[in-house]
Amino acid sequence: MAREMKDSGIEWIGEIPIDWKLVPIKYVASYNDDTLGENIDSGYEFDYIEIGSVEYGKGITQVEHLKFEDAPSRARRIVRKDDIIVSTVRTYLRAIATVQDSDNMQIASTGFVVIRAKAINPEYLRYSMLSESFIGMVEAYSTGISYPAINSSTVVGFKIPVPDSQKQKEIAFILNNKCSKLDNALEKTHASIEEYKKLKQAVITQAVSKGIRGNREMKDSGVEWIGSIPIGWRLVPFRHVLKERQEKNSPIKSVERLSLSIDLGVTLYAEKTTNLDRFKDDFEQYKLAYEGDLVMNSMNMIVGATGVSDYFGCVSPVYYTFYDELEDHVTAKYCEYIFRSKTMLRVLYSLGKGIYAIARGDDRVNTCRLKVSKEDLKNIRIPIPPVEEQREIVSYLEKKCSAIDELIDKKEQYLSEIENYKKSLIYEYVTGKKEAL
């Protein structure tokens, strides 16, 4: 027999069991209880948790051991076991986690609100705050576009559905059990995807440095990172392999801007500019790229941002474009694979100039990319087989990489399905739509 339900009056929550209450978090928990003072000894050591240390669904994935004198000014919130931390800045990251026990003092950024359960089961509270209904409220009430943020007092003012204490324990127990199994499946799938990516790298590297014709006579290339190459292959500076295209987009011939994405694998996409009047000066400084051109992002080349264009369009000044005179553009495509090979990425990294860092969150956002100069790029010597063998290698790699990418796509889809199921499961239990039996 179905339980009697009532309207919660909150769109994100929907109906809840008639005997459950809607309670603001601040009535069942305290927040931001403990803070480091300014008179702390400079040598005081602790584990620091910043926004970038927390991943939605995974919790706290890393900490940094610091001395107070070396810590950022936002390292102030004292956290203890079972505290729940919720990011109040860059809220789209959904950085929510429970603090685990540690031998060291743990300090979180002031970019978190630290919530400590008082009159509620801490595990139940955590799941309530991981539910889509709660996260939806945090995002909806955040202000700002590029850097959305929310006040701590607003977060703890949100209401959550609360059953009696026994039911809280039962729901927490069930979700711990079910989510643990789902997390194991997610972890194994992530590991499998990484293995397929490594396999793809190995296949590319082998093909562009040793060929695909099996055992054959080899010769020393004289270049350490290349090693031996097949007899009949040449070692040629890149400047003599493809020609640089320097045609400016002036007068404007294209409003299709080409960009290389590296988020989910390297892909080249075209984006049409809808407000040309506003960006006209920029577009006249852009360079043209034709179908079949090799397009390379000088700032992201060290992570494989190289691709052959399927479009006619224009690229920003940070891109380099090269072309070959073969109708099938096979040499450009072959070079794309070379510049995505593991050994070449190491070479590009060594040539990069700038300060290498990653986005860390808080007030420690260090986003800077290593730029490979055009001259250094042109001077790199690369192994070049005869054109017919280039065609063989490109055809082989397109088939092999396509098959591996298809497997990765299936794994990614499976990941998405598990993650969505986990979200649904949490939401249904903490809103009482699924009963803990």
Plain-language structure description:
The structure is a single chain. The protein has 437 residues and is α+β, with helices and mostly antiparallel strands. The chain is built from 10 helices and 26 strands. The chain folds into 2 domains: 5-162, Adenine-n6-DNA-methyltransferase TaqI, Chain A, domain 2 (Alpha-Beta Complex), CATH 3.90.220; 234-384, Adenine-n6-DNA-methyltransferase TaqI, Chain A, domain 2 (Alpha-Beta Complex), CATH 3.90.220.20. The protein is 35% helix and 22% strand. The longest helix is centred in the middle third of the chain and has 46 residues, at 165-210. The chain is elongated, with a radius of gyration of 27 Å. The two termini are 13 Å apart. Residues 356-368 have low confidence and may be disordered.
Number of strands: 26
Tell me the distance between the termini: 13 Å
| Count of individual helical segments | 10
Total number of distinct structural domains = 2
The CATH architecture assignment of the largest domain turns out to be Alpha-Beta Complex
User: For the CA atoms, what is the radius of gyration?
Assistant: 27 Å
Poorly predicted tracts of residues: 356-368
Mean pLDDT: 89
Helix content percent band: 25-40%
Shape: elongated
State which percent range the strand residues make up: 15-25%
CATH fold label of the largest domain: Adenine-n6-DNA-methyltransferase TaqI, Chain A, domain 2
Arrangement of strands in the largest sheet: 4-13-10-11
Oligomer: single chain
CATH class of the largest domain: Alpha Beta
